[in-house]
From TrEMBL:
Keywords: Membrane, Transmembrane, Transmembrane helix. Residues 407-463 are annotated as: Disordered. Signal peptide: none annotated. This is YibE/F family protein. It comes from the Bacteria. InterPro entries: YibE_F. The chain crosses the membrane at residues 26-47, 154-175, 182-202, 208-226, 238-258, 278-296, 337-359, 379-401. The lineage of its organism: Bacteria, Bacillati, Actinomycetota, Actinomycetes, Micrococcales. It comes from Arthrobacter hankyongi. Residues 444-463 have a biased composition (Basic and acidic residues). The keyword Membrane applies.
């Protein structure tokens, strides 16, 4: 007895699929909306009021009357008599030799001899065409009493701006609209750091809640703005928040247990002496949490996308098989990301590593010194949170994707294997795997997957 089959238009979901998607979205919303509301309330309660109390640090770029910061372009540079040794020479002492850059001020006038500091002369040097910033002391002294023009820093505005533009162009050219949204989201993330996290720490707010609330707010904004509102993004966000919580707990514990004081860093030492209300250990804890956000976000969104792609490739794969397949991808990602974190921090701490090598100390002693312990703890705490976020993200993604694709039709109404699907859910066809293959059969090679994608595309175009 013949009967007609109704097929939904290409790109439209069947009624059971739409119902499953609604169920998944309701479940995710029930979890994430309260978290978002709590985050907003916590930010409102801890929002900095602008009162820094007794925290006062002298501005290294502030100048006395008659002293100016000037920028200019180096015309030529070479070893000459140091202007700073003029007083010693006048007293019968020996004149020292140093690097002097003849610099043309941007404001006009003749080129002036700028004395280059020894560390810059040894590490980088100065050449004709370089843009530098120097201290003009000519208003308070002359060449007979010392150096009237002293090097302060290089002017890096142009190269940094060009690199930033190149980065934006490359990201947008490859990722297109999503890349643009990611860059805008990054700007928003730094805005949260600048307006909430840093001022709150400066005013003595509790560091761990500030780090958690700020990080959660950043992840909500970055993930949804860059990847859109979808069950896939919400799944990645749940995994990210789980990993963030683990990292925060480990950071809070390890900061005290590993005695991370930050006293070995010059900038931290300056903050220690600035005020008693600043918690340096709290700042370190906050830094441990925030430093892992980018890599954690990368792993969870990739893992969530992997689950969805695997499901698209084989919609009838069982939840257990789908989880196992996605975890194989996750393990590879974990291995490569752990290397990424470790080498990124090793590169940042390279001068310290070289100093430790010169000290000729045992490796274990070197890794637990104050200079390196913070980097080691940051790597380990961030990696543990990252690793644990992978199976959690994968499990949530599998549950959500299976709920989305759930078929509520009674057993007798479902099509036989190989028959057209009245509900519009096409049976997968793989190269070497017929339509009648049992559920859970997944192609094992890239070639098989490519052939499967091509056959599905041809079938869709034929419909």
């Amino acid at each position: 007895m013949g009967h007609a089959h109704s097929h939904p238009e290409p790109g439209k979901l069947s009624a059971p699929a739409r119902a499953g998607r609604r169920r998944a979205n309701v479940l995710l919303t029930a979890v994430l909306v309260p978290l978002a509301v709590l985050t907003v309330l916590a930010m409102a309660l801890m929002w900095p009021g602008g009162d820094r109390g007794d925290v006062q640090i002298s501005n290294p770029y502030a100048t006395a009357p008659g002293v100016d910061f000037v920028t200019g372009t180096v015309q030529q540079a070479g070893t000459e008599d140091c202007p700073s040794s003029a007083p010693a020479a006048a007293a019968g002492g020996q004149i020292q030799q140093c690097l002097v850059a003849r610099t043309l001020p941007d404001g006009g006038g003749a080129a002036v001899p700028v004395e280059i500091t020894p560390e810059i002369a040894k590490s980088h040097g100065v050449e004709a065409g370089d843009r530098i910033r120097y201290l003009d002391l000519s208003g308070v002294m002359d060449a007979r009493t010392g150096a009237a023009y002293v090097f302060v820093d290089f002017v890096r505005t142009v190269p940094v701006a060009l690199l930033a533009v190149l980065y934006a162009v490359v990201v947008i050219a490859v990722a297109r609209w999503r890349g643009l949204r990611a860059i805008i989201g990054l700007v928003g993330a730094y805005a949260i750091l600048a307006t909430f996290v840093l001022p709150a720490l400066l005013e003595g707010r509790p560091a761990l809640p500030v780090a958690l609330v700020g990080s959660v707010a950043i992840m909500f904004g970055v993930l949804y703005f860059a990847h859109g509102f979808s069950a896939r993004t919400s799944t990645a966000l749940l995994g990210t928040l789980f990993g963030l919580g683990i990292t925060a707990l480990l950071a809070a514990w390890s900061t005290g247990s590993a005695y991370l004081t930050g006293a070995g860093d010059e900038n931290t030492y300056q903050l220690i002496n600035a005020s008693d209300q600043l918690s340096i250990s709290g700042m370190i804890t906050c830094g441990l949490v925030i430093s892992g956000l980018g890599v954690l976000n990368d792993v969870t969104i990739t893992q969530s996308s992997a689950v969805w792609e695997l499901h698209e490739l084989a919609p009838h794969t069982s939840a257990r098989s789908l989880f196992a397949s996605a975890m194989r991808i996750g393990r590879d990602h974990i291995a490569s990301t752990v290397y990424t974190i470790a080498f990124a921090y090793a590169g940042a701490a390279l001068p310290v590593l070289i100093l430790v090598l010169l000290y000729d100390r045992p490796l274990l002693d070197a890794l637990t010194t104050g200079q390196l312990a913070e980097e080691v703890v940051r790597t380990l705490a961030g990696s543990i949170g990252l690793v644990l976020a992978v199976p959690v993200t994968t499990a949530v993604a599998v549950l959500v994707v299976k709920a989305t694709a759930r078929d509520d039709r009674p057993e007798g109404a479902r099509p036989e294997p190989g028959a057209p699907d009245p509900g519009g859910t096409a049976q997968p066809v793989y190269a070497g795997v017929p339509d009648t293959a049992p559920p859970g059969t997944v192609p094992e090679s890239r070639r098989a997957r490519r052939q499967a994608d091509g056959m599905r595309a041809r079938r869709r175009s034929a419909e």
